[in-house]
Amino acid sequence: MERQLGAHYARGGRDALRRAIEVRMATVGVPQGVVLLTDAAGRRIAGNVADWPPTVSPAQDHETIEIFRIGHDTPERMRVVATRLSGGERLLTGHVIERELRFARVMEDAMAVAMAMAVALAGLGAALAARMVEARLGRTVATAEAVAAGDLGRRVALDGSQDAFEALAVSVNAMLDRIAALMTELKVATDGLAHDLRSPLTRLRATLERALAASHDEAARSAVLRALDEGDRLLAMLDTALRITRAEAGLGREAFVAIDLAAMVRELVEMFEPLAEDRGMTIVASVPPTLPIVAHREILGQALANLVDNALKYGDGQVEVTAARVAGGVEVSVADDGPGIPADRRPEAMKRFGRLDAARSESGAGLGLTLAAAVAHLHDGRLELADNHPGLAARLTLGA
């Protein structure tokens, strides 16, 4: 519009431009347009705006302003350009952009709503997908937890969907079948090893006993007695190592029975009282009247005896054996007043055949703590070595 009006001014001056503006407004109309022609002093000559906007200068480029048009009760936002004509007149032309801005705001609101809906739908889809994956994997997770708890015959149920989850279940079942086969082979091998080694060791011991009975030389008898002690020690080591292997493999749960742990601890303390007196120490039990649990009586008793024996060997002062029910099971603690074990060396002490420097002066094979840890694993618990301030506290936790 600016160029067209400028052409009229170039041909006929201000009067021609005024007539062109009046004709345009009378015949064509400018429903969304704005036009104003003023003289050099700023007096209105023609157009649909009453006064020249004070913020608009002909030296400026396109500008967005808010002004009133003649016949309108509210201000409107305009995009205008001002031009100074050769005769000093000023020409303001432009168009209303209020509708465009309103449309832009509507589009922004619509996009915001669409984005919010998209995010909500995406979140819902993700939640549904997560629920579906969790439901499909739930059987596999439950099976793994059951196997870890000792149910070696548990398998993932198949639903025939033949998808990736089904393939995973098939692979897990195949793995569990292989583990079960290896466990069976391990049991057979360990039982066979125990039988094969115990027999010659037992025959060796019997031979030594006959040699001891037939010998009258004190030096020879002393040597035979030492050999008998070493044979007994070797048999005990073999038996303990086999027990550890079976316990770590989860074998032996079929022998679990109901026992009174409190009574077992009291009997154990009574059994070790003479040894404690010989070492100038005391041993006491702190247990409730009864503490019923389900456990493997034989190996649990051996594990507790190993802990008490260690406390008497390497501890000092008083050894206290406590048993109590805790969250998730029961806990047996054997605490002494000795030098204890540094925190950084406790993992080494719990390794199989692991013996610290201070323990090498005492008899033993370094299997006591390892057996206790394996027994705890068999009973879904754990063995923890902690400070007794002073001394060491060995805490054996058994699952409910």
What this model shows, in words?
Its EC number is 2.7.13.3. With 400 residues, this protein is of the alpha+beta class. Among the domains are: 2-96, 2-Layer Sandwich (Beta-Lactamase), CATH 3.30.450.20; 254-399, Heat Shock Protein 90 (2-Layer Sandwich), CATH 3.30.565.10. The chain contains eight helices and twelve strands. The strands form three sheets. The chain has a five-stranded antiparallel β-sheet with strand order 2-1-5-4-3. The chain has a five-stranded mixed β-sheet with strand order 7-9-10-12-11. Strand 9 (318-326) and strand 10 form a beta hairpin. Helix 2 (98-148) packs parallel to helix 3, helix 3 (164-214) packs antiparallel against helix 4 (218-248) and helix 5 (261-278) packs parallel to helix 6. The two termini are 91 Å apart. Mean pLDDT is 79; it is low at 357-361.
Strand count, sense and barrel status of the largest sheet are:
5 strands, antiparallel
Classification by helices and strands: alpha+beta
CATH architecture of the domain at 254-399: 2-Layer Sandwich
Strand neighbour order, sheet with most strands: 2-1-5-4-3
CATH topology name of the domain at 254-399, in short, is: Heat Shock Protein 90
Record the SSE blueprint.
Blueprint (H helix, E strand, L loop, with lengths): L1 H27 L4 E6 L5 E4 L15 E5 L8 E9 L5 E7 L1 H51 L15 H51 L3 H31 L8 E4 H18 L3 E5 L5 E4 L1 H18 L3 E9 L2 E7 L10 H4 L18 H11 L3 E6 L4 E8 L1
Parallel strand pairs: 7-9
Antiparallel strand pairs: 1-2, 1-5, 3-4, 4-5, 6-8, 9-10, 10-12, 11-12
Protein name: histidine kinase
EC number: 2.7.13.3
Enzyme class: transferase
